[in-house]
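Entry 14. Structure prediction run on the chain below.
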Amino acid sequence: MREEPAAPTPIILGIDDLRPLPRATRIARTSHEGIQLLQEHRDSFIDELWLDHDLGGDDSIMPVVTLLEEAAFNRRPFHIGTVFVHSANPIGAETVVRSLTRWNYQVRRATA
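Output returned:
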């Protein structure tokens, strides 16, 4: 009897300063850490990317959004199944959704 190969573990990344995000396989707590995390997975398929707009103090998700936008502009978008925006900041969340949707990322507003 042959064993079926195990399905690959999904890559679920989260960028949020406070929430535990139990589904995430890796979590970044700042925009700087988020950029590093995405760069580590640059050539991988990311099943889910969870984004919070406000990351504490003056930090926000916008540097990460800029990275994703620039990659798409340069015709090398990140390979992401779905981006979930789960911010308590409705204006910031809508900005993220609008920005990434414009570049053909699949984006959904969600609660974490």
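The longest helix spans residues 90-102.
Filed with the rest of this week's runs.
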